[in-house]
Amino acid sequence: MKAIIEQMTDELIEIRRSLHQSPELGFEEYATARLIADCLKSAGAEVTEGVAKTGVVGLVRGRAEGKTLLIRADIDALPVQEEGTAAYRSQTDGVMHACGHDVHTSISLGVAKVMCALRDTFDGNVKLVFQPAEESLGGALPMIEAGVMENPKVDGAAAYHVWDLPLGTIGIKSGGVTASPDHFHIVISGKGGHGAMPELCVNPIAIGSEIVSRLGK
What we know:
The chain is of the alpha/beta class. The protein is built from 5 helices and 5 strands, in the order H-H-E-E-E-H-E-H-E-H.
C-alpha cells in the first residue's frame, strides 16, 4: 500500500493545487465535480454524478459481498479573498479554499485510487462521497435524501479534517472533536422604571452582557 501511495503523491499534490486554484461555492461546484468524477473513473470506481445537484459518489466493490464503508469529503469553498502569494493561489476573486476542503477532496481521491488497486484483497465496498455545500448551506441532508446511504446500504461512515498535527500523523478522539455552529434566539425581558429607583427595575442590557460573558467561557 505504501508503494501505491508514494507513486501517486505528486499527482495528488497537483490535484489539490488545481482545486485550490479554482474554488467554487456551495452547490456551484460544477468544475470541481467534473474533476472528481474524471479522477474516480480513471481509478476504476463506479461513478454517480449530479447527486444533490453537484455531489459525486464513487463506489469501489471488493472481491466479495460484505459491509459498506462510506468515506465523506466536502468539496465547497468559502467566500473569502485569498491574500497569499503561492503559485497555486485562488484564481477566483472573493472565493478561497480556506477550510481545507481541497485537501479533503484530494485525500479521498487518493483513497479511491488505493482501494481500486487493492479491490481483490478485501470484501465489501468502499463508497466515496463528495459532498457539496458543507459550509452553512447543508449539502449532507440533500445527499442522504437522494439515497447516498443506500445501494449498497452503508454500514458505517467516516470523515476527517486537516488539523495542526505533525506531518504523517492521524488524530483520533472519542466524543466531540470540533465545534459545530448553529443559530438560536434569546429573548431577554426587562422591567422599566425610574432612574432614582434602579433596584426596582430589571436592566436587560446588564443581563445580555452577563449572558455573552458566560457563553464565552
